Amino acid sequence: MTKKTLSRYVLTDQLYLLIKNQILTHAMPAGDKINIDKLARDLGVSNIPIRESLFRLASEGLVTIVPFKGMFVAEMNLRDIDEIFEIRQSLEELSVRKAASRIPKEILLQISQELSAGKSADNEVGKEGAVSRMNEDLHGTILKYAKNENLRLTVVSLIERIYRYLSLHQFRIDLSAEKSEHEKIVQALLEEDTEKAVQAMRSHLNNSHQRLRDNFE
């Protein structure tokens, strides 16, 4: 690979992360048509890496391509929420089954201690950050020890799409419920009861799904 080609890939990765962040934080609102020429001018790059980044984001469900009309920031709706959780339910249960016997107990004990010592947050931004950290600690650990990179990348992408909803101003995050549900998953893993851990994960995702739906309706 030439230096010029490598630079192009690096640029595309940077643009992908930048545009993705704008979508996740609603700087680019849901449903908006993406003006590729303007975006390229604003960012001081050519259209090619912008298009490559947008196609990548389309594969992750954050951009919608409409033939003969263009590219749009993906809409946010109940159907999207339902579909995300339907896929996530199956994949995270699989992750638990694959990872349960592999996660070192000291890591689980550390996660448990951090959950017990976790401080309450006074506002939704603080709660969003706390949920993000909890998810990284538990869901991230389970995905790591499932030893399947494609599985990990798929679930992480789905979780990022959920954060897009959580960052909406009207959302109210039930931090205590999230914490309690995480503790049950960790406890089941510490007891080396895989089926109990799967059931705890299923219950957690069902509850998270309903909380997200209730907030969005």
Summarize the topology:
Layout: H1 3-24, H2 36-43, H3 47-59, E1 63-66, E2 70-73, H4 78-99, H5 105-117, H6 124-145, H7 149-166, H8 175-190, H9 194-216
Antiparallel strand pairs: 1-2
Structural class: mainly alpha
Globally, the shape reads: elongated
Low-confidence stretches: 1-6
The SSE string, one letter per element, is HHHEEHHHHHH
Order of strands side by side in the largest beta sheet?
1-2
How many separate domains make up the residues? 2
Number of helices: 9
How much is the radius of gyration in Å? 19 Å
| Straight-line distance between termini | 50 Å
CATH topology of the largest domain: Four Helix Bundle (Hemerythrin (Met), subunit A)
Which architecture of the largest domain would the CATH scheme give at its second level? Up-down Bundle
Strand content: under 5%
Question: What's the CATH H-level superfamily name of the largest domain?
Answer: GntR ligand-binding domain-like
Whole-number mean pLDDT: 90
For the sheet with most strands, the description reads: 2 strands, antiparallel
Q: Any overview of this molecule?
A:
The chain has 217 residues and is mostly helical. It folds into 2 domains: 3-73, Winged helix-like DNA-binding domain superfamily/Winged helix DNA-binding domain (Arc Repressor Mutant, subunit A, Orthogonal Bundle), CATH 1.10.10.10; 78-216, Four Helix Bundle (Hemerythrin (Met), subunit A) (Up-down Bundle), CATH 1.20.120.530. The chain is built from 9 helices and 2 strands; from the N terminus they run H-H-H-E-E-H-H-H-H-H-H. It has helices spanning 3-24, 36-43, 47-59, 78-99, 105-117, 124-145, 149-166, 175-190, 194-216, and strands at 63-66, 70-73. The protein has a two-stranded antiparallel sheet with strand order 1-2. Helix 1 (3-24) crosses helix 3 (47-59), helix 5 packs antiparallel against helix 8 (175-190) and helix 6 packs parallel to helix 8. The longest helix has 23 residues, at 194-216. It is elongated. The N and C termini lie far apart (50 Å). Residues 1-6 have low confidence and may be disordered.
